Every structure is written in C-alpha cells, then in structure tokens.
Amino acid sequence: MSKFQSPTGMGDLFEEDLKYFQKIERVCQEMADFYGFQRIETPILEETGLFVKGTGVTTDVVQKQMFSFRTRGGDQLTLRPEGTPAIVRAYIQHGMQSLPKPVKLWYFGPFFRYERPQAGRYRQFYSFGFESLGGGAPVIDAQIIQIFYNILKTLGIRNLIVEINSIGDSQCRPYFKKSLVSYLRSHRASLCSDCKRRLRENPLRILDCKQEKCQRVVRGAPQILDHLCKDCHDHFKNVLEFLEELELPYSLNPYLVRGLDYYTRTVFEFFKDSNPSTTPASPVPKQHSKDALVGGGRYDGLIKLLGGKETPACGGACGVERVVNLIKSKQKGIGKGLEAKIFLAQVGQLPKRKALKLFEEFRRARIKLAASFDKDSLSTQLKIADKLKIPYTLILGQKEALREEIIIREMASGKQKIVPIKRIVREMKKKIKK
Ligand code: AMP
User: Fold this and answer.
1) Residues lining ligand 1, CB < 6 A?
2) For residue 279, what pLDDT band results from cuts at 50, 70 and 90?
3) Which alpha helices (DSSP H) does 256-348 contain, by range?
4) At a CB cut-off of 8 Å and minimum separation 6, what does 174 contact?
5) Cα–Cα dist 418/400, whole Å
6) 392-396 and 342-346 as β-strands: parallel, antiparallel, unpaired?
7) Computed over its alpha carbons, how large is the radius of gyration of the chain?
8) Rounded distance between C-alpha atoms, residue 237 and residue 166, angstroms
9) Taking the domain 15-172+228-329, which CATH number applies?
10) pLDDT at 250 over 80
11) Greater confidence, 164 or 335?
12) Where are the beta strands (DSSP E) in 167-278?
C-alpha cells in the first residue's frame, strides 16, 4: 500500500463519477442559459474574515468547519466552505451594483468543510449554486426554487420535496427571538449541550437541532410564522402562491432555519421524499432522508453587511455528490461512453509502427478502437479483446505489414479475412454500422 493516502474526507474522482459531474454541469449550463444566469468562478481561497462576517461567527460552519491558515505573507485565508459570501464579495468588488438588476450568477466547483466524513458528507465536495442579486420580489424566490427543481427533475430525480419557511427580517425576528428565548430558557435543562450554548449565541438554530430531546422541547415552542410582520407575511404568502401556480410540491416546515446567519425571509431545502403518496403543499413536514440536496434562501442584509449598498438577494446551492449518489442508487446511469467495437492487435516492430498510424486514422474517422501497444504476443492481445467483449480484432503481423494488408477477425466465430490496409477504415465503418 502507498505510504500516502488522500486526506480524510477527500477522495479521488474517477471517470465513473466525473461523467455524472459533467452531465450535471451541462444541465446547469442549459438551465442558466434559459433563465439568463451568467457563470462566475471565485477563488477557492478567500479572506477568513469574509466567512466570519458573512456566514456568521456563531454558525457551525465558521466555528467548527473551516480550513483556515496563515500564508507566508501573513494573510489569514480560508478554503471556501460555501459560495454565497464570495459571490457577494465579487459583486461588490467589481461594481456589479451598477448593472441592471437583478444580477444573476451561477457557479459549479469544489467546497471544503471540516466535518466528520460519512455517506453524503465529505470534507471536499462539489456544489453548484444560483444567486440572484438586486431583486426583492417574491417571484425571484420562486424562480430560484424552480431552477433547482428543474435541474434535479431533468437529471431524473423524482419525488422531490421542497421544505420552506420564512424566518422574518430585522423588523419582526427580534420579537420572535425574544419570545423563543424566554420559552427555551424555561426548558433549558432538557436541551443538549450544543443547544445550551446556542441559547446564548444563536437560539434560532435550536429549532432545527436533530437531537430527539431538543425536538421534544421545540414542538411546544412559539412558531415564527405567527410572528411575521406584515411585509414578511405578504412576501411569504406570495412565494407560496407562485410555487402553487408552478405546481412545485412544497411542504411548510416551521422549524427550518438553515445553518447560516445571513438569511432573511424565505429559507428552503430540498429533500428526496421517501413517502411520496401524501398530498403536495401539505402543512406537515414530510418524512425524508436527513441530508438536504439543496439549501438556500433570501439574504437581503448580506450585501450591506459586507460593505455594499443595501440590496436584496436570493439564492441556493446543491451538493453534487449527493445528486450523483441518488442517480447512481437509481441505477439510471447516463449510458457508458462510446464502447470500442474493434481491437487493433500487432505483432512485431514494423506492424506496431503501422498500427500506431492506423490508430490515428480511425481516430480521425471518429471510430473508437481499443489496443494494447505495450503487448507483443498475439494470444495475449486476443485474450484482452475477448475480455473487453469486442466483436472484431484487426491483426497486423509482419507478413501483412509488408504486403500493406490487415486481417479482420470476427471474435465470436474465429472467421478471418484479409483486406488491404488502405480500405480497412471504410470496411470497418460498414461493419460496425450493421
Ligand atoms: P449548505 O450551505 O450547508 O446548505 O450546503 C449546500 C448544499 O451543499 C447542501 O444542501 C448539500 O447538498 C451540500 N453539502 C453541504 N455540506 C456538504 C458536505 N460536507 N458534503 C457533501 N455535500 C455537502
């Protein structure tokens, strides 16, 4: 075994996975073109302060999950754990605030979080995201949700459920927070140790704690939907009406708060519904696998927080590996790459040289060939062709090479025929078309 292994939670990606990644990226690009989103790729590293301020100092991402380090020059940098703060940084840095609004951007790339690795949770993972900056209308929230829905649907993922909630804004959330904290304080003893800390730092996060004991407390807690101010209430109602119009199956989840600090109003997560028979638009959260495929929401305060003008915005991100795992588990593969139907075997120095040239002729004719140029024995090469279940092997021996001929061998029957080399590409084109 090699002395070195890939870092924990960070794996190598092979063709088998990458072809799914490429397919997902293609579908994103098509959707982006249709809805008018421009691609952006920000650096893998950003100033640590961007995430501390943007994602939020009390969030799990910032407190526990960042890969941060000091450069030789003394800069404090972090491998990006999520996309939104970097997009906002780029938006402000490049003066995109003066562009016609909304500015619509999308990205696809690797992200890094120091997590306990498990299925669907890695330390390096890929995400794609769609962000719309500069638009405050509820229709934008609905359109962002629809884009993710369309992408996943196009990729063949069925029974999706969109959990949605509103967490209010700086007008109404403080009042809700107050009544929530006073309720939770009276149940402090029943909370897990993380939530005892959250009670001081980030009480809203207690609402989506996965610990059974905390969920029991939360079930009796005041609900934010009852505390929304009129503007937030109307906004949310409009978003839901759009989703209904679009026939997007959503489920209200009054405990959905999302892990990041910058959200205002709409928050949403996508899951694979494991109980698809219940009615859509149900007010009861459904049963589903625990890992969200997509997460997002509105972040009307973030651009100002990071130094820009007050600008509403909305967006989301989807985990690529989780989508790939789902597609794979359905075994609805996206078809293997072009399989070779011809094997080119050669025996001897002159035949090897001619075979290399012939290989290129086939490439130019866009006919896929398999070969093992490093093997010299004919029987070894025939065995390989057999193993690959290739129907035709072309054999170039010393005699054939001198006569400018080549043998076509039908692997199933063992029948052989000799043809001039200059005719072989045309001949094989006909044969594999049949
Ligand atoms: P978040 O910003 O935490 O909502 O993450 C956005 C999306 O990225 C999630 O919905 C997941 O699909 C995916 N994701 C987040 N963290 C990880 C991880 N550690 N491994 C794999 N995918 C992840």
Assistant:
1) 82, 113, 115, 120-122, 125, 127, 259, 292-295, 317-319, 321-322
2) very low
3) 302-305, 320-329
4) none
5) 9
6) parallel
7) 29
8) 10
9) 3.30.930.10
10) yes
11) 164
12) 250-252, 264-272
- CA of 293, closest atom in ligand 1: 12
pLDDT at 234 over 90: yes
Could you write out the DSSP letters of every residue in 294-315? EEEEE-TTHHHHTTS----EEE
The atom of ligand 1 lying closest to the CA of 316 is 6
For the structural domain made of 342-433, what CATH number should be given? Answer: 3.40.50.800
Tokens of 76: 């404090």
The residue assigned the tokens 């080399």 is 421
Residue count (the chain) = 434
Residue 146: partners with Cβ closer than 8 Å, 6 or more residues away: 246, 248
**Greatest CA separation for the chain:** 95
Identify the H or E element spanning 46.
strand 45-47
Sign of CA dihedral 144, 150, 153, 154: negative
Would you say 408 and 417 are in contact if contact means Cβ atoms under 8 Å apart? yes
Probe ligand 1: pick from 111, 126, 258, 270, max atoms within 8 Å of CB? 111
Which residue is closest in CA terms to ligand 1's atom 15? 319
CA 256 – ligand 1 centroid, Å: 15
Spell out the domain ranges in the chain: 15-172+228-329, 342-433
pLDDT tens digits for range 167-192? 999 999 999 999 999 999 999 999 99
pLDDT of residue 285: 47
Strand partners, 106: 39, 130
Indicate the average pLDDT of the chain: 91
**What's the angle, vertex CA 142, arms to CA 222 and CA 32, rounded to 5?**
140
Q: What pLDDT shows up at residue 276?
A: 60
Per-residue pLDDT at 363: 87
Distance between Cα 246 and ligand 1 center (Å): 26
Q: How far is 150 from 31, CA to CA, in rounded Å?
A: 8
Q: What's the pLDDT score for residue 259?
A: 79
Integer Cα distance of 267 and 253 in angstroms? 10
